[in-house]
Specification:
The chain is built from 13 helices and 9 strands. By secondary structure, it is an alpha+beta fold. The protein has 3 domains: about 90 residues, no CATH class; about 180 residues, no CATH class; about 60 residues, no CATH class. The strands form 2 sheets. Strands 1, 2, 3, 4, 5 and 6 form a 6-stranded mixed sheet that branches. The protein has a 3-stranded antiparallel sheet with strand order 7-8-9, with no helix packed on it. Helix 8 packs parallel to helix 13. The radius of gyration is 26 Å and the shape is elongated.
Length: about 400
């Protein structure tokens, strides 16, 4: 493929003063970036028209916006790049000038959320995603609000009702919806915009907890509807996905296990039941005859069946009791899982999810301080993906070599 672009000057002996940018630059394959983005340029095959600016410049400029806290807006981004030699070397734009309007056209015509997701997977494909929990690969899911550049002052109802009514409300961002930042909504936690759902690969080292899947949805969309988009992206990267109790549908969890090969593990609710077996307060299956808790033995991976044994030696039913009970995991995957939540390993897996919640809290604070000046679902789908791509690159840069 012949790429007709205006390339900036590249100095092979350029020395970065910013060590983070130097490490991140080494993780990016510029030729692969060009090949991904070149397909959207109409004059690529005909050779007609002026040569467009190298798409590497536009893509890396967007990464800089999320990497550096001193860049406060896309309008200031081109000027700040021209003033910093490290920024110019990172974006490969020495000798090539661009404006904020170019970045806007680049997002509209070339850098879509789908292309950004492909570039994110290209970075992951060059990494060895080995964790301390091998051979099991564990992912943890959570979400953060993404307020839109729309305020409640600008919303209108477009109706003639004098009294409070349920008529549809319209905002300056037509795709934005009203959501809440916490499960127990209050007026203070109300926001207008979207939610970014991210799957993070678990590791004991926080610098190795890499974001491997991203999905952006309207703020009022149910989590159970949004998580399937993330599962499509990480089906071959993880074996277990830890979620909160908002994802609590036995039939849906079984379907995901069949389609994606990922077991969605959730802490059982207080009203959970298991057909044929009573559950005690720890959600441990009990003997159908004596209601005594059974002892978990192992999981038979050949047919995904949990094997339990009776721990009572002097049971009155010992001569008629099989002493061993086999419960298929597919019957209640949320209650059983690979390691049932009532076992020591199951309790440990459920507790792992609390480790990454502070990281998502930092993201929430960052989006409040650096409010994204965009509107529309398409723009936020791209920006949500870029947020996680820069998090991935920043973690790779901070990891020990």
């Amino acid at each position: 493929m012949k790429l007709r672009f205006r390339f900036g000057k590249v100095e092979s002996n350029s020395h970065y003063q910013d060590a983070q940018l130097a490490t991140i630059d080494a993780q990016l394959d510029e030729q692969k970036i060009r090949n991904r983005l070149a397909l959207s340029y109409k004059g690529l095959k005909t050779g007609l028209g002026r040569k467009p600016i190298d798409p590497v410049i536009g893509y890396k400029a967007h990464l800089l916006y999320f990497l550096k806290r001193d860049i406060i807006s896309f309008n200031e981004l081109p000027r700040q790049i021209q003033k910093d030699s490290d920024y110019q070397a990172f974006c490969r734009c020495q000798g090539v000038a661009f404006t904020a309007s170019y970045l806007s056209r680049f997002r509209e015509c070339h850098l879509t959320g789908e292309v950004a997701a492909q570039l994110h997977r290209d970075i992951l494909s060059n990494l060895s995603l080995e964790t301390e929990t091998a051979p099991l690969r564990i992912g943890i899911w959570d979400s953060v609000p993404m307020p839109s550049y729309s305020t409640p002052v600008k919303d209108t109802r477009h109706c003639e009702c004098q009294d409070p009514c349920e008529c549809e409300r319209h905002f300056s961002d037509p795709d934005a919806t009203i959501g809440w930042q916490r499960p127990t909504p209050t007026k203070k936690d109300k926001f207008i915009g979207y939610r970014k759902h991210t799957v993070v690969l678990y590791s004991a080292d926080k610098d190795q907890r890499l974001p491997i899947a991203t999905a952006v949805c309207p703020a009022n969309e149910a989590d159970i509807d949004a998580i399937e988009q993330a599962l499509c992206q990480c089906s071959k990267l993880i074996d277990i996905l830890l979620v909160d109790q908002a994802i609590y549908d036995f039939e849906q969890i079984t379907d995901w296990l069949t389609r994606f090969g990922v077991l969605v593990l959730v802490k059982p609710k207080s009203n959970a039941v298991l057909d044929g077996y009573p559950l005690d307060e720890t959600k441990t299956p009990c003997c159908p005859e004596m209601s005594q808790p059974l002892v978990w033995s192992h999981l038979d991976f050949s047919d995904h069946t949990h094997v339990y044994r009776c721990g009572v030696l002097d049971c009155i039913h010992q001569f008629n009791c099989p002493r061993q009970f086999e419960i298929p995991m597919a019957e209640q995957p949320a209650v059983l899982g690979v390691f049932p939540p009532h076992t020591r390993w199951g309790r440990l897996l459920v507790a792992l999810r609390g480790l990454i919640e502070p990281e998502f809290g930092v993201q929430t604070l960052w989006t409040r301080l650096k409010r994204l000046p965009f509107r529309g679902f398409k723009a936020f789908a791209l920006l949500g993906q870029l947020c996680d791509t820069t998090r991935l690159l920043a973690k790779l840069a901070s990891a020990p070599t």
